[in-house]
Amino acid sequence: MSAPTLIRLARPRAINPLRQSLIRSYATSSELKPNLSYTKPTHPDSTASSHSATQNTITDHSQYLLNTYVRPPILITHGKGLILTDTLKRDYLDFTAGIAVTALGHSDEGINAVINEQSQKLSHASNIYWNEHAGELAKSLVENTKKFGGLGFTQGGTTSDANAKVFFSNSGTEANEGALKFARAHGKVTGGEGKSGIVCFTNAFHGRSMGALSVTPNPKYQAPFAPLIPNVKVGKYNETSQEAIDALIDKDTCGVILEPIQGEGGVEQGDIEFLKMVAKRVREVGAVLIYDEIQCGLFRSGTMWAHSEFPIEAHPDIITMAKPLSNGFPIGAIMVRSKVAQTITPGMHGTTFGGQPLATAIGVHVLQRLSDPSFLASLKEKSEYLSTKMERLPKLFPSVIQEKLRGRGLIRGIGFRDTSKPSELVRLARERGVLLLTAGSDAVRFVPALTVSEEQIDQALGVVESCLSIIAEGGERA
Ligand SMILES: Cc1ncc(COP(=O)(O)O)c(C=O)c1O
């Protein structure tokens, strides 16, 4: 594996002493001082906006692409490791990993070799025939889940259940769509036609298809497309009132879906008490529990699944995954316990592309790299290092940043006191060469590639501190 390239930012310029003393006054401790090396923009959006070749391309393309995204005026052409490069040959340090996707970084040599080899052999032949890699990846997912824990398997593989099985899709949304269908199918077999209710939770994000959107209770996403599917109830995430949970999940419930760590919703973690109560009630009423680990799963949280180390009674019956599974090549998957697998028969569900040999050959390679003990040891070190750096932020900027840091491993978030500030931080950091994501209404998310180096963490958090200093001071001056 090639060593990650360090981003080169323009030489930082010192800010004037008056401003420096103002910013220092935001620190609660006299020894703790914010990193002010990056207060000056090095990657202004305006440079890209005035680059005519870039803007001509964007103008041309906007005539043909449906207008669904608000994008800054930059156009990315290359990626290597954690570095993305734009048309002006400016390097950005990518702390978004393509929205928690490129766990092994951009343009990884090992992945490129698999793509090269497999694409010359066979990319696609349909699910009418067996191929070499879909089963291999399914086996790797199940066996690694037995080893690391999850889906009813305690670490080392002990379980009351016989086995687990996998269905491959092409995206996270499609994985959740399938999981909801499987919950319905299981409900009909075990409880009859009326057992069709689905439960989701506040701030969830499960996707944009009609089913997945119906369990994504965000009015901004849902309202334009209503009416959505019926029989969906929304509970309060982390609500531990027994009465509320009993009323929410009843005998007509066939499935309950939740993210053990909410990604888009603001990097909130599910409290173990809440998860245990939900799981217990799900089992009482004979429904199935779906954990959407599309963003937090596959080692991003530090364990294979965000729930790997939870007590077994808080494990789900279905796991959905996608994003990093093929490091950016489209893929999704649903892994189910055997009691769910038994209710699915040929013809009930399917896909043209899902499980094709190219996507799944990449997945086999990715999983083998991510589950390597030395990779996991270094991931732990990096996560702890990031934590240490993040712990400075609420201390340095108590008037801006909420005290409690969010998430774990390399899915982390900082909450803001003022909801207009997360997007301001994202813009300020981008203009200083670091790409970040917002999360929910009040947070900024750090989801770098799992290959991130300590130097890159220093750089990203240095930029964040400089930008938070600007925000604490009341914003950028013209
Ligand atoms: C937790 C979660 N579920 C589902 C999805 C939807 O996945 P996709 O965009 O691959 O369809 C996402 C995407 O961000 C997600 O974070």
From TrEMBL:
Its main location: mitochondrion. Pathway: Amino-acid biosynthesis; L-arginine biosynthesis; N(2)-acetyl-L-ornithine from L-glutamate: step 4/4. Keywords: Amino-acid biosynthesis, Aminotransferase, Pyridoxal phosphate, Transferase. Its EC number is 2.6.1.11. It is found in: Mitochondrion. GO terms for cellular component: mitochondrial matrix. GO terms for biological process: L-arginine biosynthetic process. Its cofactor is pyridoxal 5'-phosphate. Pfam families: Aminotran_3. Gene3D superfamilies: Aspartate Aminotransferase, domain 1, Type I PLP-dependent aspartate aminotransferase-like (Major domain). GO terms for molecular function: identical protein binding; N2-acetyl-L-ornithine:2-oxoglutarate 5-aminotransferase activity; pyridoxal phosphate binding. Residues 33-55 are annotated as: Disordered. PANTHER family: ACETYLORNITHINE AMINOTRANSFERASE, MITOCHONDRIAL, AMINOTRANSFERASE CLASS III. Belongs to the class-III pyridoxal-phosphate-dependent aminotransferase family. This is acetylornithine transaminase.
